[in-house]
């Protein structure tokens, strides 16, 4: 934890757990003349690998045009993990409010942060992760991320000069995957390990497309990895800090 604290002071965000990623393809029958079909974000696909059931999900909507009542999805990216959501109401009364994601094992690359005006509002604004040396002003809708103790991550926002500062009663929503990292690698690697749709698809005609045949694996799951080790943080944090100093000067 002391190493993580020092890294935070240096502005270094350690690499989180990384979800394994697979590519799948399939066709779906669409009724009623719908022009598009969609796999909604966080739709669950399951697969059994080495006697363990894994859940894979796309992190964004995937939509395709239909032709002759058929929708063809090709090389759809799905990532291993379970989607979770945290919701906070922003309090601007001077208290030091923290937006701490209470789950370990998140893949921060899947993190989606949105803000809406209040609890009854339906429209949301998407905030993007701040990247180093990005020019910010009072209208920049960005969020910042830092690792804190116990392998957790904290979201924070701008001060109203460098980045938008949320208003009192704004609702902050964080959605992300909690993943097993390397544990999901190789899922779908042979014909006996087929992905199965656990949820429903949607289409522009308010119907529910049904999969025709089987889901094929264009590329079995790879790329899953554990969170950055303490030794790696010790090595990379000072190097990152020195590089920032050189760019500033």
Structural notes for this entry:
- This protein is mainly β and 249 residues long.
- The chain folds into three domains: 1-15 and 228-249, no CATH class; 17-81 and 181-222, no CATH class; 83-176, no CATH class.
- Helix content is 11%, strand content 42%.
- Strands 1, 2, 3, 4, 5, 6, 14, 15 and 16 form a nine-stranded antiparallel sheet that branches.
- Helix 1 (2-9) runs parallel beside helix 2 (230-248).
- The longest helix is centred in the C-terminal third of the chain and has 19 residues, at 230-248.
- The radius of gyration is 21 Å and the shape is globular.
- 29% of the residues are buried.
Q: Look at the helices and sheets and give the structural class.
A: mainly beta
Which sequence of SSEs, written as H and E, runs from N to C?
A: HEEEEEEEEEEEEEEEEH
Low-confidence stretches: 245-249
Q: Give the overall average pLDDT.
A: 89
User: What overall geometry do the principal axes of the alpha carbons give?
Assistant: globular
Helix content: 10-25%
Strand content: 35-45%
What count of structural domains? Answer: 3
Number of separate strands: 16
Question: Rg, please?
Answer: 21 Å
Distance between the termini: 30 Å
Topology overview:
Blueprint: H1 2-9, E1 21-29, E2 36-39, E3 45-49, E4 52-57, E5 62-67, E6 70-80, E7 82-89, E8 99-101, E9 106-116, E10 125-129, E11 142-147, E12 153-157, E13 171-178, E14 196-197, E15 202-203, E16 210-222, H2 230-248
Parallel strand pairs: 10-11
Antiparallel strand pairs: 1-6, 1-16, 2-5, 2-15, 3-4, 3-14, 4-6, 5-6, 7-13, 8-12, 9-10, 9-13, 11-12
Helix pairs in contact: 1-2
